Amino acid sequence: MAFEGLADRLQQTIKKMTGKGKVNEQDVKEMSREVRLALLEADVNFKVVKDFVKKIRERAVGTEVMESLTPGQQVIKIVKEELTLLMGGEQSKIAVANRPPTVIMMVGLQGAGKTTTSGKLANLLRKKHNRKPLLVAADVYRPAAIDQLKTVGKQLNIPVFDKGTEANPVDIANEAIEYAKQEHLDYVIVDTAGRLHIDEQLMGELTQIKADLNPDEIFLVVDAMTGQDAVNVAESFDQQLNVTGVILTKLDGDTRGGAALSIRAVTDKPIKFAGMGEKLDELEAFHPERMASRILGMGDVLTLIEKAQENIDEKKAKELEEKMRSASFTFDDFLDQMEQVKSMGPLDELLGMIPGANKMKGLKNVQIDEKQIVHVEAIVKSMTRQERQDPGLMNAGRKRRIAKGSGRPVSEVNRLLKQFEEMKKMMKQMSGMQGGKKGKRKKG
Ligand code: GDP
Q1: Is the shortest distance between the CB of 119 and ligand 1 below 6 Å?
Q2: How many CA atoms lie within 13 A of 141 on its CB side?
Q3: What is the pLDDT of residues 169-183, one digit of tens each?
Q4: In this predicted complex, what is the ipTM?
Q5: What was the pLDDT predicted at 439?
Q6: What structural domains and CATH numbers belong to the chain?
Q7: Which pTM value belongs to this model?
Q8: 13 lines ligand 1 (CB under 6 A)
């Protein structure tokens, strides 16, 4: 999970402060030291760490904490506010041109995730903002890159403009913009060439494209997992191109978080989006405050709700509720429900968005084994339609067949059947309780 190490350490440090009725300078000094170490260990730029700790310290020894009735809470508030500011404060929006199409130029080193992110961004603009994007293949040095973008476009059913490897990138982009106007497409996302390292020729070409297209946004795509290298790359690109925003990719695999916490302070450019996985819907708008909240173990309910709204079919959810009430919930419904929750993202990440989940005894350090879910699914899918609708049919022979079909032991099949029965019993009890209440209300 993103920021795992930092989150653990900061939360431990903060825990020591929460219960305190009084906070003295020594406490603040100690806390500052721990925060400093935690940030350095998370690979945050040392100068950024120095400034950050200085600010926290100044505020924590100031009157707002010392005179507060809950100084511990006050310190947490300060850390959260400063973390939010460090990552850019407000969420930064994407530009809209006065006259469409809005032109977005994507730049970055090879392997950072530029092509994938171009596709993800087009997908997000269409899905969340109701826009009609056009992807443009302007990396003329690598035929593979053009093919990759076309594949992405096909998967998403989003048009890709390309002219092979013979044309020049500026001409391609200009023609693409004309094409977008004709077709009434309102966002043009230009996937430019990347290299393994920054070189003059690349920068020269990108500068020329920029001068010619005058894009509304220049997004620099950097790989969060490369930590301070990502920050250095961002600095160089920004010096030459004056980018308008940064997209951090692979934040899902970045357990430290150094790039996310340093880039804004070093380049003064906002992080606009974060890549949270390889799939084409795994790009999130970057909300500094929500991120700070996740790092401090306070959860991120807003993102959780948004994910649920995007991925859970409301009609199905209502039907499911009805079935739960009437206790006519079957294994088919069970599968459905699992699919919907799974589509929201990896479970441990979802858990991280629930406030206080990390403090709950049963949930602390719980390793959610996604494999187990796959096993459960395999078992249910090995049942016949009839069995799924009416688990009462189950006998030893059927259980053996299901075990064989799913490649799981009979004991596991038994366990699932038992859990399912218990779940139904519980639903019955709950709906009974609700029915009772309703009845009473009617009488009264
Ligand atoms: P490009 O050379 O910059 O165009 O990079 P690609 O788009 O080809 O991406 C390089 C690799 O990074 C691919 O395997 C992508 O699937 C992977 N990738 C891109 N973004 C993310 C992300 O947010 N999370 C993860 N886990 N992988 C990503």
Answers
A1: no
A2: 9
A3: 999 999 999 999 999
A4: 0.98
A5: 40
A6: 4-86 (1.20.120.140), 102-298 (3.40.50.300), 305-443 (1.10.260.30)
A7: 0.76
A8: no
